[in-house]
Write a structure and sequence with these properties.
Blueprint lengths: L10 H18 L10 H12 L5 H8 L3 H11 L14 H8 L1 H22 L3 H25 L5 H10 L2 H10 L3 H4 L2 H22 L4 H7 L15 H18 L16 H4 L2 H12 L3
């Protein structure tokens, strides 16, 4: 499908074209899908995977910084070939152990190289992609802190993974947006289009990639306002609150709400007392260079 930009294009026509783009995207979703996340981290992962002296911990630490590569590693580790007992895992280090360092290294390297090969198409939206990447890592780190401090019954590895992949659809959409001249000339439109549609695209994508239903349910509609979460009881509460403290309010306020949303969670003492710990966790995972 080819889009052209004309001066007399109506808002209705633009809306119809955007819907057509989303329909095109939906048709492309499959388990072999590859799209760039962050150019620099793909290079970093490629470098570590080529280093045969890298430890399991080093490999896992790099893999967990790319939501797509982490998802593919986990999907393979949980397939029947490597998981005949049917005991699924959600933490990257155990996935690397289950696969073996050779296989894990090969899968991660192949995906990183594919991402780099596609990075030129993402170039017009690289700044947006980097912001989504930083947000995803922060959400993952904060999710783990919330679990450990406020919800010990929730698996912190599950929470970390859910936070890491909760906006995976945004990266897929940014990659595909580079194919449409109309969107290349309207970066603000892309910002709003991704903010408003990445959740529905991401839900399908996560299901296609074989993520646990618990994670898919937890990240669904996390950018839509809900009644204040005064106590964390479920994984979806973790992701919602973590998303807010990771800067997700900007996404929420691009949802065409009748008025700006002011979440009470950001002033709730039980969460704000953890801000220093949240910041430390974010700094640790972001210290990649």
């Amino acid at each position: 499908m080819t889009m052209t930009l004309t001066e007399d294009k109506t808002n209705t026509e633009l809306h119809d074209q955007r819907l057509a783009m989303l329909e095109d995207i939906a048709k492309e979703l499959d388990s072999d899908t590859v799209f760039p996340i962050c150019f620099d981290i793909a290079i970093e992962i490629g470098t570590v995977m080529k280093n045969h002296n890298a430890s399991i911990q080093q490999i896992a630490a790099e893999v967990q910084k790319d939501p797509l590569i982490a998802t593919k590693i986990l999907k393979l580790a949980n397939c029947i070939t490597y998981n005949p007992s049917g005991r699924n895992i959600v933490d990257i280090e155990n996935a690397v152990i289950r696969l073996g360092m050779g296989t894990a290294r090969s899968v991660a390297l192949a995906c990183a190289m594919d991402q780099l090969a596609r990075s030129a198409q993402l170039a017009p939206f690289e700044a947006q992609s980097n912001l989504w990447w930083l947000h995803s890592l922060k959400c993952a780190a904060i999710s783990r802190v919330l679990c450990k401090q406020l919800a010990p019954r929730i698996n912190p590895d599950m929470a970390f993974l859910a936070g890491l992949v909760h906006d995976l659809g945004a990266f897929f959409m940014l990659d595909r947006a580079g194919r449409y001249p109309e969107l290349l000339e309207r970066p603000k439109t892309v910002d709003y289009l991704v903010a408003q549609w990445h959740d529905s695209i991401g839900t399908v994508l996560l299901d296609t990639l074989g993520l646990p239903e618990e994670i898919i349910d937890a990240v669904r509609d996390n950018d839509l306002p809900r009644p204040p979460v005064t106590q964390i009881r479920k994984l979806t509460d973790v992701i919602y609150v973590a998303n807010l403290f990771a800067g997700g309010l900007d996404e929420i306020n691009k949802q065409d709400l009748p008025e700006p949303f002011e979440p009470e969670e950001l002033d709730n003492p039980q969460y704000t007392r953890l801000i220093d710990e949240m910041n430390e966790a974010c700094a640790e995972i972001l210290s990649v260079w």
